[in-house]
Amino acid sequence: MVQNSTLSPGDTLLKVDNVSLRFGGVKAITDVSFDIRKGEIRAIIGPNGAGKTSMLNVINGFYHPQEGTITYKGATRTKMKPYVAASQGIARTFQNVALFKGMSTLDNIMVGRTLKMKSNFFWQIFRHGPAMAEEITHRRMVEEIIDFLEIEHIRKVPVGKLPYGLQKRVELGRALAMEPELLLLDEPMAGMNLEEKEDMCRFILDVKEQYGTTIALIEHDMGVVMDLSDRVVVLEYGRRIADGTPDEVKANQAVIDAYLGVAH
Questions:
Q1: What are the tens digits of pLDDT across the range 114-147?
Q2: How far apart are CA 251 and CA 106, in angstroms?
Q3: Residue 111 has pLDDT above 70, yes or no
Q4: What is residue 2's predicted lDDT score, i.e. its pLDDT?
Q5: Cα separation of 187 and 95, whole Å?
Q6: What is the rounded CA–CA span in Å between residue 257 and residue 252?
Q7: Is pTM beyond 0.70 here?
Q8: Residue 142 in contact with residue 134, Cβ under 8 Å?
């Protein structure tokens, strides 16, 4: 997969500036700022209800904040549609697996190539001419992802028949098929056993190292967060309470209080 950004590793890929998000009278996010640097794994953590998934939804354009801005690859915006975010290199996975359960692993990952297809609708319907050549090219890319994720044995299996851990891996494959510069992972290891978590950790690290993909990660397993992340931002009740390296965050008293449930 080719990354087209002119940014160098360590440069700011995405910046969140003073973002606030409300649903009626409920404040989901309040005046939160942080950045994500190209080539890093950036964890977003916090207790349940801290606003983590809402923040990912703001970044990929599903929610539009009432205040604040998102700057991505140097362009500042207050609103973006999810399909525009996808076309600009932002892909994501979800807390609950969002796959087409009746379709095979191969076909689900092929869905991730949709934005890359250039043939018009007429040719795609009849799978003829330019559309056929294009599909062969995209299928080759998908087969590479299947090999990378070590799921060759389930390539033709309907994903609804797969165990949960493998469904999560297929969803990661579909996101990778979009060739993202920024990959948003929302609890990619939720519901997994220890062996499945170890496999997913390995794949996440390989995505970073082999593809150079920048990753923003929400995860509740603190052992995973501390092992995988380059930097961690901590949210509580929609506010940022800490930001730094895993060691810095782990030693932060506000973070300790938040996870121990100390009264405020």
A1: 776 665 444 444 555 556 666 777 788 899 999 9
A2: 44
A3: yes
A4: 44
A5: 5
A6: 9
A7: yes
A8: no
Q: Which of 188, 204, 197 is nearest to 94 (CA)?
A: 188
What would the two tokens of residue 174 be?
A: 């579909």
What region, left, alpha or beta, does residue 114 occupy, with left being phi > 0 and alpha being psi -120 to 50 degrees? alpha
Q: What is the mean pLDDT of residues 95-99?
A: 78
Res 96: pLDDT: 74
Residue 112 CA, distance from chain mean position:
13
Residues 178, 19: Cα–Cα separation, whole Å: 27
| Phi and psi angles of residue 102, each rounded to the nearest 5 degrees, phi first | -85, -5
Please name the amino acid found at residue 170. V
pLDDT bucket at 97, cuts 50 / 70 / 90: confident
